[in-house]
Amino acid sequence: MSDLTRLTATEIAGLVATGETSAVEVTRAHLDRIAAVDDRVHAFLHVDTDGALAAARAVDERRAAGEELGPLAGVPVAVKDVLTTKGVPTTVGSKILEGWRPPYDATIVQRLREAGTVMLGKTNMDEFAMGSSTEYSAYGPTRNPWDTDRIPGGSGGGSAAALAAYEAPLSIGSDTGGSIRQPGAVTGTVGAKPTYGGTSRYGLVAFSSSLDTPGPCARTVLDAALLHQVIGGHDPRDSTSIPAPVPDVVAAAKLGATGDLTGVKLGIVSEFTGEGAEPGVLAAFRESVDTLAKLGAEIVEVSCPHFRYALPAYYLIAPSECSSNLARFDGVRFGLRVGDDGNRSLEEVMSLTREAGFGAEVKRRIMIGTYALSSGYYDAYYGQAQKVRTLITRDFTAAFERVDALISPTTPFVAFPLGARTSDPYQMYLADLFTIPTNLYGGPGISVPCGLSDGLPVGLQVMAPTMADDRMYRVAAALESVVGTFTPPAL
Amino acid sequence: MAAISREEVAHLARLSRLAVTEEELDTFAGQLDVILQSVAQVGEVAAADIPPTSHSVPLTNVLREDVVVPGLTPQEALSGAPDADQQRFRVPRILDEDVAS
Hints:
The complex is a heterodimer. Chain A is an alpha/beta fold. Chain A has a domain at 4-257: Alpha-Beta Complex (Amidase signature (AS) enzymes), CATH 3.90.1300. Chain A has 16 helices and 11 strands. Chain B has a domain at 6-44. Chain B has a two-stranded antiparallel sheet. In chain B, β1 (84-85) and β2 (88-89) form a beta hairpin. Chain B is flat and about 55 Å long. Chain B starts with 5 loop residues before the first helix and ends with a helix. Chains A and B meet through α10, α11, α12 and α13 of A and α1 and α2 of B. Chain B: Its EC number is 6.3.5.-. Chain B: It is an enzyme of class 6 (ligase). Chain B: One of its GO terms (biological process) is translation. Chain B: Keywords: ATP-binding, Ligase, Nucleotide-binding, Protein biosynthesis, Transferase.
């Protein structure tokens, strides 16, 4: 048997379904790989060896009993530590939840279990998903398998690095401002942010509730689509969940893989191809645009004039929502409690607990949000940002009257060295320059590897209208059918 | 001119229930100033008559049937509590001693 960790999820599921290999064999191969390389990558915060093997055995037993298995049965998956997993530690990359074992599963985790996927463990992330490099994890950074002196992106650097290091064929991320797509781009993997409301937030530890969107990560577009199909769809336990079927993203990925984009009109966001992006990123992007045109797509330039205000609007809206959401970490119902000596008041204990439990970036965002929501500043900051959000949405709506989907580089720059941007928080924010507009609009976006710049991966982003997630899969799969997948140097 | 003073950051920290240190105040004051000056760019947009967007999904008043569904047991709900007593979350004192007596 060839190395099981090098296979796609589609290939693994096929081998398990026909009995050429077992889910237990597949799971052991991935656990062995994690044991061999994760001390250098640090993609995982927790590896659930026993739980994974038990889930794999259950799949093998169901197959032996003649039960029909789902399209991803027996396939290992790594889950970002932002989703609650019953009885399995969930930290959100924060000390404030160290040791917490949730009493319930997130809806997405429940759907993964029902589909017969095998959860290997929980992946590293910037604390509370606030960051673009995974360096803000309270448990130490994840390293990029392409170059372990460089960042794997963030906040979902663990979920992306686990794929690139062949520790898992599939993973789950969450995307508030780019936390699925940007790590996908800089690790040479595929990351998809579904339409907001297309995937359930029940059991997703909230950062910015109007933006947070869990979604699939994989090494191929088809694998991402299969995972999207399994986790997506209406959830009555999330009142912002859209009560409509998931677009047929799997069919769209298969259609795209035929390499025919005849009749598809793509718009290049002109604001994202000028200054601000590295020459190597732009070169890889331009080459991909030529490829898409050769596949039959019609390419036009589209201007979205308010996109330049997306970053400042986002860094008012997201911190405002976070300052409210993170009030629940009060040292009462779960997690850390510091300084409860019998004399201190609840308020003193709360302040000491939050001071000890939160890292610097989380504190900065809570304070920025508190500022933006303060009376006297509300209209000029939070209120104005919400109006800019309307204008950005109108830019998208106008663009989608002319084109089927928008394309841009996913990130302005390739993976940067660890430590390069931690001293200046705003420099870190720039990593999400091209991904944030989609979150404010609420539509879907995907990053697909499109080339290399100085030996490091570059991603192309496809943005589609709300609830037209299938379109982005078609375009991404078409590009992948030409440029292929990207394999990092041996670790 | 600075967008925010060290004293204002100390006030924000109090509102945010963060017992920050003096060193942190020095660091945060500079960093929050850079961030606030950058995000203030939203003010350049003429948007007086533009309605705000709080949410991208046009759903309002999502209702469901009022039926009993399985929930957490008291033991499960308290399983992550730093302190619990008689099936309740135990909290530090809320009132001052002299007020409470």
